[in-house]
Amino acid sequence: MEILWLTAHPEPASLTGHLSREGARAARALGHIVTESDLYAMGWDPVVTAADYPDHTGRLIVADASHEALASGRIAPEVRAEQEKLLRADALVVQFPLWWYGPPAILKGWFDRVLVKGLGYGTGERYGAGALAGKRALTVVTAGARGTSMAPRGIHGSLSQILWPLLHGTYFYTGMSALEPLLIPSADRADEHQAAEAAQRLASRLATLFTEDPLPYRTETGGDYDDDLVLRPHVAPGEVGLEAHEAASRG
Predict the structure, then answer these.
(1) What is the pLDDT of residue 56?
(2) Nearest-CA neighbor of 18 among 178, 184, 179, 169?
(3) How many CB atoms lie under 10 A from the CB of residue 185?
(4) pLDDT of residue 218
(5) Is 251's pLDDT higher than 50?
(6) Which UniProt keywords apply (predicted)?
(7) Number of domains in the chain
(8) What is the DSSP letter of 246?
(9) What torsion do the CA atoms of 75, 7, 14, 143 make, to the nearest 10 degrees?
(10) pLDDT single digits (tens) 87-96
(11) Residue 222 and residue 191 share a domain
(12) Quick one: 228 and 166 in the same domain?
């Protein structure tokens, strides 16, 4: 199987950098093909501009311009290169430090530029279906916070809720199966032994990358939502939080 390993950290000697190298090595040892995109090392430009769509004229409506550029094969070459990596991959591993409850801007900009209309959205299918259906996505997050504080009753909240825009609004929206994210807490205080333990945790998750059950988000077309895309009254009655959009099998 082929994996696209997407990393966003400015310091190669960081725990994120160490885990990226060790994880890719472990994945290859399992027999997988690993293609890497280290965004800081690549000097990736995260900003969407009209230059992404060379044939565009007039007012820039990003969705329409990106769709036209994708269809004509005239999208910016660095964007097309990343799209080709993603389309070839059976799984996406996204690795980053948690900054202000989200990924670094350079990573957000990768999704902004790469998942254009016609590839990431606008295909008529979404939330469990779409152009990227069949692919799996594992998120590996390093955080300075203690693990106990990033839980349902912890002050920071649970990681799956913190990352809702990425897990549900990006992966699942485009058809990918979002896996439970892997949290590496207290990252800035990790010693050599703890770094080795974190690498082993990552290797264990990679061993089940293609077999573990994804997060059980409700699909748009599965019957749980009405024509206004609101949960039907009998589905998760009384629940109004993000958990209501997960099937009961998650507990």
Answers:
(1) 84
(2) 184
(3) 21
(4) 95
(5) no
(6) Oxidoreductase
(7) 2
(8) B
(9) 120
(10) 999 999 999 9
(11) no
(12) no
